[in-house]
Design goal:
By secondary structure, the chain is an alpha+beta fold. The strands form 3 sheets. A 3-stranded antiparallel β-sheet has the order 1-3-2. A 3-stranded antiparallel β-sheet has the order 4-8-5.
């Protein structure tokens, strides 16, 4: 279970290199949900074929991750803390949450072209978690624009992504 692995990471010396296949998948889910910052090996081989990521580097537990750990501990103790006295986690950055974005594109026609920076960040997290099959171009500058542009093409939601949609959030 990814949340149990989050508790394990709390006591690990970070950054942590992960190579166990199950743990890499757990890190992918934790990264997609914004609970850890991690670098995950590309899920595509040089030929563009999908494969499971072989390794990950967990950089740190995010503020949301620490808030989730605190929440799990308070639920485990059965303590009820009123919202007024509970410390509030810091505001999340603007833009869609990766799993909320997955739900949003569930009924889309594929391939789906995306050029919004916040949505591309979600696609990157979902791609690294193995939830979508997507290609993301590096930022480049068009002739008629002075700002670099990114482009992502979501080919499909993978079976793992569909299973995540069925589980809900």
């Amino acid at each position: 279970m990814p949340l149990t692995y989050l508790l394990h990471l709390e006591h690990a010396r970070l950054p942590l290199h992960v190579t166990d296949a199950q743990d890499v998948r757990r890190v992918s889910v934790l990264k997609a949900t914004g609970l850890v910052e991690a670098e995950i090996d590309p899920a595509f081989d040089p030929g563009g074929n999908y494969r499971l990521a072989q390794a990950a580097l967990v950089v740190c537990i995010t503020d949301d991750g620490h808030a989730e750990i605190a929440s799990m501990r308070s639920r485990k103790r059965g303590a009820k803390i009123s919202r007024a006295s509970a410390p509030q986690p810091p505001a999340r950055p603007k833009g869609p949450d990766a799993l909320a974005y997955l739900h949003r594109i569930a009924g889309a026609s594929f391939p789906l072209r995306v050029d919004n920076h916040d949505e591309i960040n979600c696609i990157e997290a979902l791609k690294q978690a193995g939830f979508v099959d997507a290609a993301i171009s590096p930022a480049f500058t068009w002739k008629d624009s002075s700002e670099p542009q990114e482009l992502a093409i979501v080919r499909r939601i993978t079976p793992l992504g569909r299973a995540q949609l069925k589980r809900g959030r």
